[in-house]
Write a structure and sequence with these properties.
With 158 residues, the chain is α+β, with helices and mostly antiparallel strands. It has a single domain, classed as Chemotaxis protein chec (3-Layer(aba) Sandwich), CATH 3.40.1550. Strand 8 and strand 9 form a beta hairpin. The longest helix is centred in the first third of the chain and has 7 residues.
């Protein structure tokens, strides 16, 4: 997993959003973040600068300064909202998903659009903070990642 820019994030690879909204979590990232197939996860909109989103678990957020999100939206914390239904909270889009067998999440086109994404987009998958795995949609890290053919491309075919 290279560090593409000095002082920048480490990148696991690129994930291409599939036609059906499938987004692969690179195996190394899945292992490092402790994600398992079948895990319920929370999708948080990314920063204005990098776009995209972060993937985390309720149990991780509860130990951070973002625990207020779970207090504001108890149905998100308990995963009672329907999968991929978006909720806006203080300028951030949130939804929940499940890691499917094979290590991917699937977001409908309507949900992707809330994160300014669409099928066919490339995302640099980077080590975020200890809060969430980052799927970066724009900015210097994505531009640099696209210049590195040695980075593995993860995608669901079909």
């Amino acid at each position: 997993m290279p560090q593409l820019v000095k002082g920048g994030k480490y990148v696991y690879g690129l994930s291409k959003i599939g036609k059906t909204g499938a987004i692969v979590i690179p195996p190394e990232a899945k292992e490092e973040y402790g994600f398992e197939d079948g895990d319920r996860v929370i999708i948080l909109s990314g920063s204005r600068k990098s776009g995209g989103f972060g993937v985390t678990k309720s149990s991780i957020l509860q130990k951070t300064s973002l625990a207020r999100i779970l207090q504001d939206i108890p149905s998100l914390a308990s995963y009672r909202i329907p999968e991929a239904e978006t909720i806006e909270n203080k300028g951030r889009w949130l939804c929940r998903s499940i890691i499917k067998t094979g290590g991917y999440i699937q977001l409908p086109v309507e949900t992707l659009s809330k994160y300014s994404l669409e099928p066919g987009d490339f995302l640099a998958v980077g080590r975020g903070s200890n809060l969430a795995l980052s799927f970066i949609a724009r900015g210097v890290i994505l531009k640099e990642a696209l210049k590195h053919p040695e980075l593995e491309l993860f995608e669901i075919h079909g």
